[in-house]
Amino acid sequence: MKQDTKSREYKVMLKSELFSGLEARLLEQANDFWSEFKETIRDIVLDTDGTLNKIEPPRLVRFYDSASHRLQQNNYIFRERIDLNSDQREITLKFRHPDRYISQDRDMAAANFETGKTKFEEDIKLPFVTLYSFSTKQPISDSKLLNKMKDPGELYPDLKKRLKSYQEDELINIVRRFTAKEVVITGANLKIGENPKVEAECALIVWYKESGERDKPVVVEFSFKYERKGESFDGETAQKAYDVFGRLKDQLTGWVDPEGLTKTAYVYTKA
Prior knowledge:
Blueprint: E1 7-14, H1 23-40, E2 47-55, E3 59-65, H2 70-73, E4 76-83, E5 89-97, H3 100-104, E6 117-125, E7 129-140, H4 150-155, H5 158-162, E8 173-174, E9 180-193, E10 198-209, E11 219-227, H6 235-251, H7 263-269
Parallel strand pairs: 1-6
Antiparallel strand pairs: 1-11, 2-9, 3-4, 3-8, 3-9, 4-5, 5-7, 6-7, 9-10, 10-11
């Protein structure tokens, strides 16, 4: 079944050492980045609004997989997020592939259809690499264990059919025993379309090791994302987004880490 692309999200890894410090200092550095960024793209976008100054409720992030990384090897990611203010647990199963028709050719529905939220998105990273992401998130109870492959298999029934060599009793664990404390900073957007009005929401995502130092992030990602109903993405708006992405790569070299690992890559290879 054809899936409409809900959003296009452009992601750039930044130099994590530039964002060291506690919360007040982090916000200063986020504002410094935003100020330089918006000046760099002033001749491309129609307008910029706000600044990166709103810290969302912090959460813990964990990835689960088998010892052989069976999920990742089959282009799946199984992730848990825990809101540190409410202790609410949320899981996401995501399938990503550079070919949109391969990515959309599966059933990502949650076993409890009413609680699951599904979306199909395009993710773009440097230099201009596209992955189509098909995912469903859903809440889980405090007591739900995530220690065997049958756990994601029962929560997302299509996984049993799609995963090569699926064995329900295969053990899964937190990947590399790594838990990130995630801080997301929002409050800024870019106007890249006039008729109709299109705004791209910006976010700075900062990861710390849960057991590590509170003032030294290990991963920092900047992203901007825009949506269009019914996949009505037009060329003019896409050109502006493309040009903004190019300026990030070519003119903000003091901030951008062109060799920086994505969040998922960091978890699986370096954490």
